[in-house]
Every structure is written in structure tokens, then in C-alpha cells.
Amino acid sequence: MKRIQLAGYAARHFDWSVAGKVATITLNRPERKNPLTFDSYGELRDLFRELCYATDIKAVVFTGAGGNFCSGGDVHEIIGPLVRMDMPELLEFTRMTGDLVKAMRACPQPIIAAIDGVCTGAGAMIACGSDLRVATARSKLAFLFVRVGLAGADMGACTLLPRLIGLSRAADLLYTGRVVGGEEASAFGFYNRLVEPEQLLASAQALAQELADGPTFGHMMTKTMLWQEWNSGLGECIEAEAQAQAICMQTRDFERAYHAFAAKSKPVFEGD
Fold it and tell me: N or C terminus of the chain: which is more exposed, having fewer CB within 10 Å?
């Protein structure tokens, strides 16, 4: 069985830091509002795939440097070259970007996006692919694909966004590409909470630490079932949850919680 440690991972196209069991990914091209390149897309996809095997990372924070989250694909390094590609090359690229979101959803660790400033295009889809979103009121969310003559159907937007905010609101954002402020995005449920800019990273990391200190096997199962049950009927969902919960009831964390409750103390979870 493959098991790895990622605390010492040396990232090439973004910043990677680890404190305890919480990893933080920081897109660090602040002079251009942290756009993605072919290389950063690929490395992020591969890293999230590897997180499936990491035993030392229990939660991930995803953020951007310099007061912005991510402005999407780099205009000069991605958009320009795409115009000159043929169909097989274009399909290879669009599948790679979608694979990043799939890898985020497949990795067992909860992912918390810490969003300030610009969060557009592929950056908005990274936010969608995260499990929780902490943001600022001054953040600017936009699905800009239509603004460059493309469909709103990109990186899973037409399935993820309606499930987060509802079909009608998703249609509004995907058809118009309009910019949504933090207050509005929070009001329709895209953001889980709003904080002040100076508190953003600390708040997201504190939430990640809270999850990392919890029953991490149970969190993994919750993430798996949230993803799996989207495409299942009610009967299938209930049966799948019955099996998942029975598995969790065999963990030592469940036993620890019982003994702590009996002793009127706080359980200390170890993720096994």
C-alpha cells in the first residue's frame, strides 16, 4: 500500500507550507493577481492526486498572495497559445484543467479556500472544487468564460455551481460572467463565512486545524459520501451512508469519543 509524507514537498510553481497536519497552498504571482499557467495546473493536479496517499496532511488551505485569490488562466501564457492549438491539443488542455477539480474532489483531506480580492475563471472553479470557502466582503467572484467567447461549461462549472448556489443563480453567473461581491456571494451560499482581510488566512487555517484535530477518517468518509451521493437516488444514498457509518463505528476515534463522553471529557481524535 502506497503511503507518503508530503510535509517536505518542494513545490515549483506555487508556495507550499505545512504547520502540524495542515498544509497551505499559496498561488504566488501577486503582480498579475495569481494566474495559473500550464505548469501550475499540472503540478496542482499531481499534488492533489498524491494527497490521497499522504499520511501527514489532514486538511488543506488554498489561498493567493497579495490580496487576490486567482485571476484564472494567464492571458499571455495560456489564452494566447490556446488560440493557435488544434482540437486534439485543446481537448488535452481542457481535460487537464478538469482533472485538477477531479483531483481536489477525490483527495480525502477537506480543502478550505481562503478568498480575497479577485477570484475569477479557473480561480472561481478552484473555489467551487474546495470543500469550504472563507472569504472577504471585498472579494470579487466571476465565472468569466463567456467574456472570452466560451461556454460557461468549464472544469465542471455546470454541475458544481448549481449544487452550491442553485440552478437559477448559477445560470445568472455563467450566462453573464458578471462580478459578484463578497456580501452577495455569501448571501446566496457560495461562501461559508466572511471575515476581515487581515483575519482571512488565520481564520481559514484555524478552521483547517479544527478539522485536522477531529475524526479525520470520519471527515474523509463525509467528503466521499457528499461527492458520491450527488448522483444517487435516495434509497442508494441511505444504504451507502449506512455502510459508511458502520465502517466509521469500527474506528478507534468512535471508541475514544464514547469513553470521553462517559468520563465527561473532550475526546482527542487520532484519525484511526
Answer: N
